[in-house]
Structures are given as C-alpha cells and as structure tokens.
Amino acid sequence: YCVLGFEVDTVNSVQFSNHTGYDHWTGQVMTANELHTLYDGLKLNGVNRYDYVLTGYTRDASFLEMVVDIIRELKCQNPNLVYVCDPVMGDQRNGDGYMYVPEHLLPVYKEKVVPVADIITPNQYEAEILAGKKMNTEKEALEVMDLLHAMGPETVVITSSDLPSSLGKDYLIALGSLRKIKADGTLVKERIRMEIPKVDAVFVGTGDLFTAMLLAWTHTHPNNLKMACEKTASALQHIVRRTINHARGKEPGMWVGGGMLGWGGGTWDGWGGLHCWVVGCRVGWGGCSAEGSVRH
Ligand SMILES: Nc1ncnc2c1ncn2[C@@H]1O[C@H](COP(=O)(O)OP(=O)(O)O)[C@@H](O)[C@H]1O
C-alpha cells in the first residue's frame, strides 16, 4: 500500500499479541530463515529494488544478521538505497536504563548493523550503549553522536533525552547530527537541538513513528536535517496530544491508527514511485498510544 507517497512492503520481525510493555505478551519471533525465504521470493520475481529500508524492533540476532546481508545485496541493486535503522533495544525510566530485547543483540547492532546504516534513530539510552559513553551534558551528547558517525551513519538523531532544557523540566530534548563528506573532500556538519513540550504520559510506539516520519521528511529535505526533524517533531506533537486528549475523553471518536500519519502539515501526496521496505513489527491493538502508526 502507499503511504505519504511511499509504496511500502512490510515484513514482520515479530508477531506479538501486544507490545512488550504489557505484563504479558505472546507470539512469534521471526527467524533469519523466514526472512530469507521472503527475500528469495522477491528476488525470484526481480522485485528486490528498493529506495529505502527501515528496520525497527527485533529480538533475534541471526534475523538481524540476515537483515545486514540483505541490505548489502539491496545496496548493490541500488547504490542510492538509504537504510534507516531504529536500533530498538531499551529505554530509561527515572534515569535508569534497561534493555527490553536480549542483551546479545547489542554487539550485533554495534558491529554489524549500525556500520551499514545511513540514518540511525536511537533514544538516549540506545545511543549511550552503542557509543559506550554516557551523555550527561550537551557536549557529551555531541561526542556520543560523533562516535556514532564514526561507526558509519551519516545522520544520527537522538529521538529523546533527559538533558536539561533551557525552557524547563516540561520539555524533552532531541538532538540531530548530519555529517557529510562532500565530493571535494570538505566535511559538512549540521547539528540541531529540539526542545519538545512533554505530555505527561508514557507512549509506546512513538520512537517507531518518529523514525518513519523522519525517513519521509529526509526524503523531501535530504540536505536539511533541521527541516526534516521539525516536521517530524510537529507530527509527533500533534499525535501525542490528540492521543492523550482522546485517552482522557476530551476528543470523541478518534481512531488511533495508521491514518494518523496525516498530521503535521506539508504536502503528503504526489511523491510517487518510491519503494520502501519496512522490517519491523506491528505492535499492539487498542490501548492508548500512537502504536497503530508503526504500520507506516
Ligand atoms: N511524553 C511525551 N511527550 C511529548 N512527546 C513525546 C513523549 N513521548 C514521546 N514523544 C515524542 O516521540 C518522540 C520519540 O520519543 P520516544 O518514544 O521517547 O523515543 P524512543 O521510543 O526511541 O525511546 C519524541 O521525540 C517526541 O517527539
């Protein structure tokens, strides 16, 4: 199906009853073999040419390794392919970080996945464990982003952090860094900081949504990370506000689903012809969050 001008093929990396923030969850974790089988089908039909690949939540190391093999092959098919990786591993609550996927995935992300990624979207905790360095200050955050660039990706966006905001404790900080070596050898660096008004609730799926929106907006603004991030954050802000208003009963009749991608301004139509492959799960039905949107 076609969303925001992208024709998207989705592949489940897990198929769960609900997201793992619930007390219980059941379902299947997809294996490397299952992914390979699907990819083989695409190859046999000669339809394995993509403009973008986006990956999200995964629990299986060999599945991740297979993703890397496939990305390499897809990049041979289309050298301009952009791989957007959300290294979904964990989060922090009240300053304490924890992993919600098996710990042995970290070295696979570090050594194999991040090096082939063009854009990565870790949260603060994921950025710190990938870089092997804490970021307690903005200066340290810039150093962490430089370490992540050195691992491969040209674009690094830290989707949320608890760095202090000059606007007060009701704001969360997101940071972005674009580091490009131009054809003439000069290094271009663009750093951005966004202060995002916090909604007093915990959302699941917002990181997934952020990454999908960023993919779409960096396509429209390939050399303007500020614009891409602003439009992404704008959509997120609208969605979390509408979601919380709905949950609190202030906004009747709203459906929290994939269709919500339509907020945030801008023209969403007419990009035509783009082909994007999303490897990630579809989390959750019901509940209060932007989770439907991970369907991209
Ligand atoms: N409580 C919140 N209030 C406002 N915006 C939020 C909130 N939680 C998430 N967001 C939005 O979702 C984006 C992704 O944040 P988050 O879900 O914390 O990332 P991750 O899932 O990678 O940890 C943020 O940049 C912000 O735009």
TrEMBL record:
<comment type="pathway">
    <text>Cofactor metabolism; pyridoxal 5'-phosphate salvage; pyridoxine 5'-phosphate from pyridoxine: step 1/1.</text>
</comment>
<dbReference type="GO" id="GO:0005829">
    <property type="term" value="C:cytosol"/>
</dbReference>
<dbReference type="InterPro" id="IPR013749">
    <property type="entry name" value="PM/HMP-P_kinase-1"/>
</dbReference>
<keyword id="KW-0067">ATP-binding</keyword>
<dbReference type="GO" id="GO:0008478">
    <property type="term" value="F:pyridoxal kinase activity"/>
</dbReference>
<dbReference type="InterPro" id="IPR029056">
    <property type="entry name" value="Ribokinase-like"/>
</dbReference>
<comment type="similarity">
    <text>Belongs to the pyridoxine kinase family.</text>
</comment>
<dbReference type="GO" id="GO:0009443">
    <property type="term" value="P:pyridoxal 5'-phosphate salvage"/>
</dbReference>
<keyword id="KW-0418">Kinase</keyword>
<dbReference type="Pfam" id="PF08543">
    <property type="entry name" value="Phos_pyr_kin"/>
</dbReference>
<comment type="pathway">
    <text>Cofactor metabolism; pyridoxal 5'-phosphate salvage; pyridoxal 5'-phosphate from pyridoxal: step 1/1.</text>
</comment>
<comment type="function">
    <text>Catalyzes the phosphorylation of the dietary vitamin B6 vitamers pyridoxal (PL), pyridoxine (PN) and pyridoxamine (PM) to form pyridoxal 5'-phosphate (PLP), pyridoxine 5'-phosphate (PNP) and pyridoxamine 5'-phosphate (PMP), respectively. PLP is the active form of vitamin B6, and acts as a cofactor for over 140 different enzymatic reactions.</text>
</comment>
<keyword id="KW-0547">Nucleotide-binding</keyword>
<protein>
    <recommendedName>
        <fullName>Pyridoxal kinase</fullName>
        <ecNumber>2.7.1.35</ecNumber>
    </recommendedName>
</protein>
<feature type="domain" description="Pyridoxamine kinase/Phosphomethylpyrimidine kinase">
    <location>
        <begin position="53"/>
        <end position="252"/>
    </location>
</feature>
<keyword id="KW-0808">Transferase</keyword>
<dbReference type="InterPro" id="IPR004625">
    <property type="entry name" value="PyrdxlKinase"/>
</dbReference>
<dbReference type="GO" id="GO:0005524">
    <property type="term" value="F:ATP binding"/>
</dbReference>
